Amino acid sequence: MIEKDSRRDFLKKSSVITAIALTPAAAVKASDLKLDERLSEAIEQMPLSIEINGQQHHIKVEPRTTLLDLLRERLKLTGTKKGCDQGQCGACTVHVDGVRTLSCLSLAVMNDGAKITTIEGLSDGDKLHPMQEAFIKHDGFQCGYCTPGQIMSAIACIHEGHANSELEIREFMSGNICRCGAYANIVNAIKEVKAGGAI
Amino acid sequence: MNNFQYKRVSSPLAAISELSKNPAAKLIAGGTNLVDLMKYGVMAPDKLVDVNHLNFDAIKKEQGLLHIGATVRNAVASANPDVLKYQPLLSQAMLAGASAQLRNKATMGGNLLQRTRCGYFYDISAPCNKRVPGSGCGALEGYNRMHAIFGASSSCIAVNPSDMNVALTALDAVILVSGPKGDRKIPISEFHRLPGTHPELDTTLDKKEIITGINIPDNNFAAHTTYLKVRDRTSYAFALISVAVALDLEGTTIKDVRLAMGGVAHKPWRLKEAEQMLKGREATTENFKLAAELAMKGAKAYEHNAFKLKLAPNTMVQALKTASGVKV
């Protein structure tokens, strides 16, 4: 295809072309003025102060970066999973200021000043969170891909007061899809943690 | 997703000014629909104006009405004591929509502006007059199981996906908006549009206007309301048919009634003829069936959604029975 150019060069060129086609006025202007593409990137970066699992981060992000991509790609917190990336499966569920939220539909820049808790932030050293223990005890998973989202959602479900019956748990956990079908065991895990009163 | 500029505004005037300056700018609140549409490439605004910090987050019982601010989250509104006390139908409808995570994020104003879930609207390789005016309608001769049976046009047969909007329509809500020319109030019946020849327009909101809140007038329905939603799975799915019922009963006589249907039209579908028929009559299954028959006048099915012609009246009768407590 492009024999003389390396793949990296090709990607670099095509990304500039893409940048001209898709980015807002500032970046286009930077490209027109033949400014370095790093500069046009810099123009698009927004400052973000965010606390994740108790640790403060002062970083810069592109406005289009989702909270999910920030967690996984930038901060290497890959416990939070990318399932559908369209807000349909719940695998990316995290707590934002204590409220369960889909990180794939949340722009990182809109979480300025927020406190995020991910699955990595639940345990106390080697001591697992009671919900993690319950998922293990009740075999609340098979492949495990939806599990971080299920656990984050399950904790919130109890905090919200929506875990008072099996029916209520199923209704308020319906945003977390498990294609292995571990639902029955997930419900049992939540019921036990709720009954134990530990959270 | 395309790249874009992001601006957080702290006053309604600043938001209106941003929209006035840049026709390609869009407001973002919860983002639960817009971010999704941007990932699919269905929408590609070059600037997002964040309206989460405008202080439209109050729920207030005022003289003659309940006010809910535009950026109140659906989860917050559905659990609010005043909403539960004065407008329980609204709470029921909101809890029937989406998932707990989405309701935590989605706002009242954003839900009013939720775009259709028609597969051809979402598929950028397919024709869609709503997405690209003049490109045709893929659903008309395509897979139209989820589509409209009322008020459609040859340009568009998509449906409004919101549950909240159906309840607000039954409750005669008023949408408060603010724009360059000042404030105005839009009755919800005039807020959402039928597709006609301009399906690209979902609402009558001007591009430079912002939603600031919703007013719901007081009523005597709180004791007898039902939102019945029929869908492909028990929870977390869009409606095939939904019916919002609000009844004011004196014994078993219907003093007043409101009826609206979801999953059937480009806008929440108010059933005024059926309401008129039921007013003053006894709450009986027989009368409910007559009302449902009346409600279905003018319904038109497409290749894959003829089942809605039966499901809609059946859902309506069941919702009326549940709301009134009629057993047989």
Question: How would you explain this protein's 3D organization?
Answer:
The complex is a heterodimer of chains A (199) and B (328). Chain A is built from eight helices and five strands. Chain A is of the alpha+beta class and 199 residues long. A five-stranded mixed beta sheet of chain A has the order 2-1-5-3-4, covered by helices on one side. In chain A, helix 6 runs parallel beside helix 8. The radius of gyration of chain A is 21 Å and the shape is globular. Among the domains of chain B are: 48 residues, Uridine Diphospho-n-acetylenolpyruvylglucosamine Reductase, domain 2; 100 residues, Enolase-like, domain 1 (2-Layer Sandwich), CATH 3.30.390. In chain B, 30% of the residues lie in helices and 21% in strands. With 328 residues, chain B is an alpha+beta fold. In chain B, strand 10 and strand 11 form a beta hairpin. The model of chain B has no long low-confidence stretch (mean pLDDT 98). Chain B contains 13 helices and twelve strands. Chains A and B meet through helix 2, strand 4, helix 6 and helix 7 of A and strand 1, helix 2, strand 3 and helix 6 of B.
Radius of gyration of chain B: 19 Å
Q: How many strand segments of chain B?
A: 12
Order of strands, main sheet of chain B, comes to 4-5-8-6-7
Helix-and-strand structural type of chain B: alpha+beta
CATH architecture of the domain at 225-324 in chain B: 2-Layer Sandwich
Biggest beta sheet summary of chain A: 5 strands, mixed
Present the secondary structure layout.
The complex is a heterodimer of chains A (199) and B (328).
Chain A: H1 7-22, H2 25-32, H3 37-44, E1 46-52, E2 55-61, H4 67-74, E3 93-96, E4 99-102, E5 115-117, H5 130-137, H6 147-159, H7 166-172, H8 183-196
Parallel strand pairs in A: 1-5
Antiparallel strand pairs in A: 1-2, 3-4, 3-5
Helix pairs in contact in A: 2-3, 5-8, 6-8
Chain B: E1 5-8, H1 12-21, E2 25-28, H2 34-40, E3 47-50, E4 59-62, E5 65-69, H3 74-79, H4 81-86, H5 88-95, H6 100-105, H7 108-112, H8 119-122, H9 164-170, E6 174-179, E7 182-187, H10 188-191, E8 210-217, E9 225-230, E10 241-250, E11 253-262, E12 269-270, H11 272-278, H12 285-295, H13 308-324
